[in-house]
Amino acid sequence: MSYNPRMSILPGGALPPGAGAGGPSAKSRAAKKEEEAAYANMRLPDREIVGCINELGISFTVQDLQKPNPIQVQMIFEWFGELLMNKTRATVDPAMRAAADDIVGEDLCDALMPADTRNLLGFFANLKRLMNECGVTDFNFGDLYKPTHDRLVKLFSYVINFVRFRESQTNVIDEHCNRAEQTKARIEQLYQENQNMEGQLEDMKFTRKQMEAQVAEKTKRNEELKHKLLELRKTQEKVAARWEEAKIKKAEMTKELEDKTTTKVVLKQESAKLRPYTLQSPSALQSSLTELSNTLNGDKAHIDSLDRRARALQTSTDSFAVVTGDVASCIKLLEEIAAELAKEEEENAKNAKQRDALTERGASVREVERTEALLQRQLAKWVERTETLRVHSQEKAQRAKESMEELRAVHKKLTEERSEKGKDIERRRVRIEQIEKKMLDLKENIENEVRAAYDEYLKMESHIKLYITEMEQAL
């Protein structure tokens, strides 16, 4: 029996939904005609619908289609949802449970919102989106709880045609699915690469810190070597100055030695000239002088008798006086020669001491020369080592610079990839927020539809009560 709505006791219940003061517009009528024309092309016979559902492995007959059972219809729609969207009541249960926990709390969610009801509502939201994709824009909750033959034929026709179209476009769908899987795999790969790059970046930062510490240590050691080199250079300058002073002193002492050697040779020559005069001793001369004096005395005794010899004796006396003067002068000269010899011996002793000192100075000079040669070799080694260290430091600095450039390039690339991933994450977050907003809107729509269904139920109950009352009054 077709239901004809009567006047309701509820306010605003006399007019059906969508009826207004002027009625539906021309645009709505044109859209309805286009929808009816499309439905005429999409409608499938009952036997074909039943055959298609039986081919899917669900036991379904023409009588079941003409007199639909809500539970069976819900099972069929759930199977379509799993086939086309991979959505069932079980898959939406976690999200619906979380939404119920957020709205009414964890303690009251099962009491106020039973699991079957909320799962059915969540599945209905996904199923409604599927029906919109199939071309059914007026799918409502009553199609699951109070299905009719005409509505089921329309819904199944649209869904079966959509499945057929989907099977005809399997290659395109598989291509897009593969592309989505590849994109997902690429995202996972990029995320893993990002993690690896971050690990490598941390390792490079740690290595950079170690290298900076090593470079600082090498720089410090280089500075110490520079200070040591400067000290060695100053020491070398001092040694060179001392060497110049030693050369000057050596030249002076050599000249003095030559002068003294010349003086010694001259003295030796003069001593050789005077040596014959020193062969007779003074005692012999004194004895000779005594004998002459005795003779003179004897001659004096005979002087009177030897008048003739007086002049000779006088001459001899004068001669002896001259000889005596000469002897005295010779004695004086010998004393002077002895003094000169003593001085010469002293000079020789001094020359020996100076020779020893000169020998020691020569040994010191040779030691200084050896030390200078050793210091020169050490200086050459230190200079070479310093040059090697400087070259190594420059090479390490160059490698560190190149590594820093590579690290900067990698960091820039990672930053770009991170920004791209951040943008992608932001897009996904926005998409998730949009989906959450759609879920909230869908939830509100479901609640509104539930309220509308409950209002319709109240209207129907009031109409039935009114109808029963009228029937009782008529009887």
Automatic annotation (TrEMBL):
It comes from the Eukaryota. Gene3D superfamilies: Ncd80 complex, Nuf2 subunit. Residues 39-181 form the Kinetochore protein Nuf2 N-terminal domain. Keywords: Cell cycle, Cell division, Centromere, Chromosome, Coiled coil, Kinetochore, Mitosis, Nucleus. One of its GO terms (molecular function) is protein-containing complex binding. The keyword Cell division applies. Residues 173-242, 327-361, 390-463 form a coiled coil. GO terms for cellular component: Ndc80 complex; nucleus. It is found in: Chromosome, Centromere, Kinetochore; Nucleus. Acts as a component of the essential kinetochore-associated NDC80 complex, which is required for chromosome segregation and spindle checkpoint activity. This is Probable kinetochore protein NUF2.
